[in-house]
Write a structure and sequence with these properties.
With 490 residues, the chain is an alpha/beta fold. It is 31% helix and 22% strand. It has 13 helices and 19 strands. The protein has helices spanning 12-18, 32-35, 63-85, 96-110, 118-128, 148-158, 216-228, 245-258, 278-288, 328-345, 361-373, 443-447, 457-462; strands spanning 21-24, 36-41, 48-52, 139-142, 161-164, 177-180, 188-191, 205-212, 233-241, 261-273, 301-307, 351-355, 379-383, 389-390, 402-406, 417-421, 432-436, 467-473, 485-488. Strands 1-10-9-8-4-5 form a 6-stranded mixed β-sheet, with helices on both faces. Strands 13-12-17-18-11-19 form a 6-stranded mixed β-sheet.
C-alpha cells in the first residue's frame, strides 16, 4: 500500500481489520492508494468510507493542491470529450504526455508529508494551468454535497456552465429533476436551475463526483436528464473509478439503450475487494472502539465577520446554475478584508478555512487567496459534512477527530447533526478556524442550536481552536444581509 515519507497509509487500519483491499489498474494516472485513505462509516448501507486526500471534504488540505487536482480532472475530462466529439485523425489539444506529466507531479505531491510539499504543489500548479481547455456548450453538473466544489473546478477548467444538485430547501424555485444516491447518508438530490433553457444546448453533459463505486447514481442521473433533453454525449468525471467489470458494462448498455455515447474520466482507476460480512464486522469493530476523548483545551474566542453588499457583490449559489465562477476581484476583496481583520484581532496560524456542506467553491477560492496573502502562515481548506464517520486518532486511519454540531441550513429533510473532521487530533490544534456558512445565513442560526443536546457551529468550533471566525456574506436574493465588522461574541 502507498505510504508517504515516514507515514503509513491512512487506510491500513481498516484494510487489515475488515479485509479491504484497494488495487490500481496498471493504466491508472495516479495510484488509487495515493488518492484516498479509509475510515469507518456510521451507515448501515456501507461500512467503509474512501477518504480523499485532494478533495478537502474530510481532511484539511492545502488549497492550491485541491484546485490543481480538480482542474487536472477537468483536463482529463476535456480529453474524453474530444475523443467522443472529434473526427478521427484530428490532433488532440491535450497530448497524453502533458497529462501524464501533471499526474506524475500530483503523485509526487501525495508522496510527501503535508506541510513539507510547497515546492511540489507549485510545480503541479504550473503544469496544470496550461491544460485549461474550453469545451463549447458543455453543461457541468456536480453532486451534492461532496462534489459541489470539485464540479466547479472542472467547470472552471472547461469554461463551462455549472450547476450542482442540492438537498437544500429552495422556496420559489421548483426542482426540474431529482435522483437518488443509494449508499449516501442522505440520498435525495434535486436540480433547481433558474434558467429554463439550462439543458437545451447540444454540447456534452459532464457529471462530476468524487468517486465511482458502482455507478448507479450516475445511471439514474443520465436517465433522468436524457428524459428531459436528450444529449449525444455524457462524460462522467471522478477522482477515482472503482467500478467492477459488470458495472462498466452497465454504462455501455445504457449508452446503447439511449443512443448516446458515455465515457468516464478519472485520475485513479482500479477496483476494491471487501471482506466477508463486512457490515457486521464493521459494526462489531465500532462497538469495541474506545470513545474519543473530548477536547480539553480552553475554549477559544468566537467572532462574526459580516461583509456587506456595498463591499462585495452578493453571492449566487451554484445550485441555481452559473455561467462562471465568482469574479476574482470578489474573491480577493473577501480574502483581503478577512486577512486584515484576522491581524487586527490577533488571530494566529495555522489557519483552516472551513466551507459549510454544499458551500465549497467560494470558500476554497478565498482560502487560496488568503494563502497567497500570508505566505509565512499555514493555510488549509476543509468542509463540514452531514456524513457520520467514526474518528480514531492513529496514523494508519484517515479520520483522527470529529466535531459535531447542529445544522443551520434550511434543508428539505429538516434539522440534524453535522460534522467537521480532522480539525484537531494527534496533539494538533489550529490557531484559527474561519468558517463560511452559506451566503445569507443569519448569525442567530450559528449561535443557537436547531438540535437538542448539540451545540451550534460557532460554539462547537471554539472548543478546538483559539479563534473561531465565522464569515457571513450577502446572498444574491431579496434577503441580502449585513454590515462589515468583526464583532466579538464570546
Amino acid at each position: 500500500m502507498s505510504e508517504t515519507t515516514n507515514h503509513p497509509w491512512t487506510g491500513t487500519y481498516v484494510a487489515e481489520a475488515l479485509g479491504v483491499a484497494i488495487h490500481s489498474d496498471s493504466a491508472s494516472a495516479v495510484a488509487v492508494e495515493d488518492l484516498v485513505g479509509l475510515a469507518l462509516r456510521r451507515n448501515p448501507k456501507r461500512a467503509h468510507l474512501l477518504v480523499s486526500r485532494v478533495l478537502a471534504k474530510h481532511v484539511p488540505t492545502e488549497p492550491a493542491l485541491v484546485i490543481a487536482a480538480g482542474e487536472l480532472l477537468g483536463a482529463f475530462t476535456a480529453r474524453e470529450v474530444f475523443g467522443l466529439t472529434s473526427d478521427a485523425g484530428t490532433t488532440h489539444p491535450l497530448p497524453a504526455a502533458t497529462l501524464t506529466a501533471a499526474a506524475d507531479a500530483l503523485t509526487s505531491v501525495l508522496k510527501q508529508p503535508t506541510g513539507q510539499r510547497h515546492e511540489a504543489i507549485s510545480t503541479l500548479t504550473e503544469l496544470v494551468a496550461p491544460l485549461h481547455t474550453v469545451v463549447p456548450d458543455a453543461v457541468v453538473i456536480g453532486y451534492a454535497e461532496t462534489a459541489t466544489g470539485l464540479g466547479r473546478l472542472v467547470a472552471n477548467s472547461l469554461g463551462a456552465y455549472y450547476i450542482h444538485s442540492t438537498r437544500h430547501a429552495t422556496p420559489g424555485v421548483v426542482p426540474v429533476a431529482g435522483f437518488e444516491e443509494g449508499h449516501s447518508h442522505a440520498t435525495s438530490h434535486a436540480m433547481v436551475p433558474t434558467d429554463p433553457r439550462w439543458l437545451d444546448g447540444s454540447g456534452p453533459v459532464i457529471l462530476v463526483d468524487d468517486e465511482l463505486s458502482t455507478g448507479s447514481t450516475v445511471i439514474n442521473t443520465i436517465r433522468e436528464l436524457h428524459a428531459l433533453v436528450p444529449h449525444p454525449v455524457y462524460v462522467v468525471a471522478a477522482l477515482i473509478d472503482l467500478r467492477s467489470s459488470a458495472d462498466r458494462a452497465r454504462f455501455d448498455a445504457l449508452a446503447t439503450e439511449l443512443g448516446c455515447r458515455i465515457a468516464v474520466a478519472a485520475l485513479g482507476t482500479g477496483w476494491i475487494e471487501l471482506g466477508t460480512d463486512i457490515l457486521g464486522r464493521a459494526a462489531a469493530l465500532i462497538e469495541d472502539l474506545p470513545e474519543p476523548k473530548p477536547a480539553v483545551d480552553v475554549a477559544g474566542r468566537v467572532s462574526i465577520l459580516e461583509i456587506a453588499s456595498s463591499f462585495i457583490s452578493p453571492v449566487r449559489s451554484d445550485r441555481f446554475g452559473n455561467a462562471s465562477a465568482p469574479l476574482s476581484a470578489t474573491v480577493e476583496a473577501i480574502a483581503g478584508h478577512l486577512s486584515g481583520q484576522l491581524d487586527e484581532a490577533g488571530c494566529q496560524s495555522p489557519f483552516v478555512v472551513l466551507g459549510c456542506e454544499e458551500n465549497m467553491s467560494l470558500p476554497l477560492a478565498v482560502a487560496q487567496a488568503l494563502d497567497r496573502l500570508r505566505p509565512d502562515d499555514d493555510v488549509r481548506f476543509s468542509t463540514t459534512t452531514r456524513s457520520p464517520i467514526v474518528p480514531l486518532d492513529r496514523d494508519s486511519y484517515a479520520i483522527a477527530s470529529a466535531v459535531t454540531f447542529s445544522s443551520h441550513d434550511q434543508t428539505n429533510d429538516g434539522p440534524g447533526p453535522r460534522f467537521a473532521y480532522n480539525l484537531n487530533g494527534s496533539g494538533q490544534r489550529p490557531g484559527t478556524i474561519v468558517a463560511f456558512p452559506e451566503p445569507g445565513t443569519e448569525r442567530t442560526e450559528l449561535l443557537h442550536s436547531s438540535v437538542p443536546d448539540l451545540p451550534p457551529l460557532a460554539v462547537a468550533l471554539r472548543a478546538v481552536t483559539n479563534d473561531a471566525v465565522v464569515v457571513l456574506l450577502c446572498v444574491d436574493s431579496p434577503t441580502a444581509a449585513a454590515h462589515s465588522q468583526l464583532e466579538d461574541v464570546s
